[in-house]
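Why predict the complex rather than its parts? Because the way molecules touch one another can change local conformation, and only a joint prediction can capture that. The input here totals 532 residues.
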Amino acid sequence: MQLNRRQLFGLLAAGGLTALAPRFGRAQGAPLTKRIPSSGEALPIVGLGSWITFNVGDDPEARDSSAEVMQAFFDGGGRMIDSSPMYGSAQEVIGYCLRKTGTSANVFATDKVWTGNGGEGPGQIERTRALWGIDRFDLLQVHNLVAWEAHLDTLSAMKNDGKLRYVGITTSHGRRHNELEKIMHEHDLDFVQLTYNIVDREVEDRLLPLAQEKGIAVIANRPFRRKELIHRFEDEKLPEWADDIGAASWAQFLLKFVIAHPAITCAIPATTRVDHVRENLTSAREPLPDEEMRRRMVAYIREL
Amino acid sequence: MSEWWAYQPSDLLMFSPQTYYRLFELYNTSLWPAQILTLAAGVGIAALTTRGPHWRGRLIAAVLAFIWLFVAWGYFIDRYAAINLAAPYFALGFVVQAILLAVVGAILGHITFEGAKTLTGKVGVALFLFALVFQPLVGVLLGREWFGLELFGSAPDPTVVGTLGILLAADRIRWELLVLPALWCAITGATLWVMNSPEALLMPLVGLLVLVFAAQRSLSPRHEYAGD
Ligand SMILES: NC(=O)c1ccc[n+]([C@@H]2O[C@H](COP(=O)([O-])OP(=O)(O)OC[C@H]3O[C@@H](n4cnc5c(N)ncnc54)[C@H](OP(=O)(O)O)[C@@H]3O)[C@@H](O)[C@H]2O)c1
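Output of the joint prediction:
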């Protein structure tokens, strides 16, 4: 059997050859990483979202506090920041923060194309790039499958021309999974982004196994279902065995559950707080729950 | 669009409450001292509803039209659009209302204040005074910064309530002028609702109150002044 690089890394990521490649890598003090199946590049398993949190407009104080969050994110070894033209001023604020903190070189720049008209894709992408103030994106995704055929063509062409490193597509809130599955089967994708957290687990059935099989990296959005899961559990006691997986808080419990899934390459919690960004990056450390422990986590949550 | 059920209303909110209220603080800071002018305009309108030359209805409508244009640009386009992708559409609605006020009220002279004040008319004046004086204080009473006051003439909510008050206080109910302000009551109510703001119901209730009084007034024509 001949394996190309994508399939090989896909297998490795799936844990098929764990003796050859440990599932997680990590430099001293840095978050754990997983490999992007299509390239083998290592990516920290906790990134940073920007929906709502970075949409602060021209409020100088809020912009500077966003920059502090970003600085803490990079200081803690984070890399992927995700945004979208749908997020109001978030892209422009990210650009401001990258300039202010001088961290453009650290970022794994991840954004989206979001317009119902395929012809408008390139123009929108160029505006987005200018807002970030970077030379090129690492990853661009078709947002919520909007006009996905035309946009996938655009993104693939950009990748071929060396103007983009990875191509992806996103969905959220459990929508349009059948269509996404079809696209994953039929198209050459580096990444998919979807909603995965301890209560939204539908993707475990088909999409995550398919991503493993096809060697597609998976970004988990809404790891806390926006703050809903944190609010739901904050008055409950963490189980005693939370220590065994290194979870000191509910946020870490929830995040470790997500990033420990073998098919998940990284999760992208959003936050406005420096202490939260640190807490989230600290989740990306050993020990992570194994399959049995993850089942126990789900059972525990169900009891509450 | 078959799977909208997958969203909760709060999933459509694209900014935090903190960012929303900060917007008014920054807006007021950048406008100052123009608020003195808009508030003076408000006091002038209140006075004109009770006495003044026969063309005062036209004047009031013209001033209101100008204020709606001002809010469309200064608030929606210049401020709110930075954090809300829907703001340009709201701005458009405010421009349309400005045009309607200018045409129906200032040019055609259909907004008049010549008749004796009915109950509806009194409610209208009270509503206008509420928008001018008390509504801005709601935020402060809820613990927000005083320089984040939402003021008649510059912020949309009290401007809409004030306008609805004037429209109720006029001799005739002009339904074409009530539609967009009433719609805004629903939109802003929904926004504040998903932000969990304690005053979320205020604007929808005002809208409802106005519609009830307007309907009652329209259905009892004998109260109407037949002067135009
Ligand atoms: N269709 C799509 O492509 C799509 C859809 C949804 C999301 N996304 C992406 O995924 C990202 C994540 O999803 P999301 O922002 O909707 O939801 P989320 O990451 O599940 O939740 C964000 C909320 O969690 C809170 N939080 C973060 N870390 C915390 C901690 N350690 N302790 C307590 N609270 C914490 C934050 O509040 P604080 O500010 O108080 O920390 C924030 O309100 C988005 O920002 C976006 O980039 C993409």
